[in-house]
Design a protein that fits this description.
The protein has strands at 2-14, 23-37, 53-71, 76-95, 103-124, 129-148, 156-179, 182-189. With 191 residues, the protein is mainly β. The chain has an eight-stranded antiparallel sheet, with no helix packed on it. Strand 1 and strand 2 form a beta hairpin. The protein is elongated.
């Protein structure tokens, strides 16, 4: 039998709007979970059953963002979203080399922070034809560390990574409604 717990909280606030400045929204979500696989409590039905090991898995994430939409003419608008997110995943394993001792043999720590800006122009040409074009810019920062050991006191690094990656992706999409129940989407998404 494994022990688990999950918690989440989300929100969205639409701020008072003014046609001259557009509409602003603030949004966010956060979640945390853990699951413990305690060796002596596991049964053969448990997917990760190992009676000689205790495993602890924790994860969490959070997103916070701001969205702005402003009308540009009667049939078009520009929407821009700026958001940041953070996630973490932790794993620890303890083995029982004998019936008395417990040894911490694996520790894994993964962290990712992302910043994203998305902005697009949306135009409705007619009841059948719509077009959307814009750009997404993202910056990822990641730190990942995995260490193992057997009976030795020294941790052996398996993975130790820290780095960043930036992406800029233009996109365009055209939607045409051939029939009220049948629409065709054509577009590109660059990298």
């Amino acid at each position: 039998v494994s022990q688990s717990r999950y918690r989440a909280l989300s929100f969205k606030f639409d701020l008072p709007s003014n046609p001259k400045y557009g509409k602003f929204s603030v949004f966010g979500i956060g979640a945390y979970s853990y699951i413990n696989f305690i060796g002596k409590e596991l049964t053969e039905q448990d997917l990760f059953a190992d009676p000689y090991s205790d495993r602890y898995v924790k994860s969490g994430f959070g997103i916070l963002g701001l969205k702005h939409t402003i009308n540009v003419g009667t049939d078009a608008y520009v929407r821009t979203t700026l958001a940041g997110s953070s996630s973490a995943s932790l794993f620890d394993q303890y083995d029982f080399p004998d019936s008395v001792n417990r040894l911490h043999v694996t520790k894994n720590r993964d962290y990712t922070n992302t910043f994203r800006l998305n902005s697009y122009y949306n135009k409705k040409f007619s009841a059948k034809l719509n077009m959307r074009a814009g750009i997404t810019a993202e910056m990822f920062h990641q730190k990942s560390n995995l260490e193992d050991r057997d009976s030795a006191e020294v941790w052996i690094p398996v993975r130790d990574f820290k780095g960043a990656l930036g992406l800029i992706k233009p996109f365009m999409q055209v939607q045409y409604a051939i029939h009220p129940k049948f629409k065709v989407n054509v577009g590109f998404h660059g990298m």
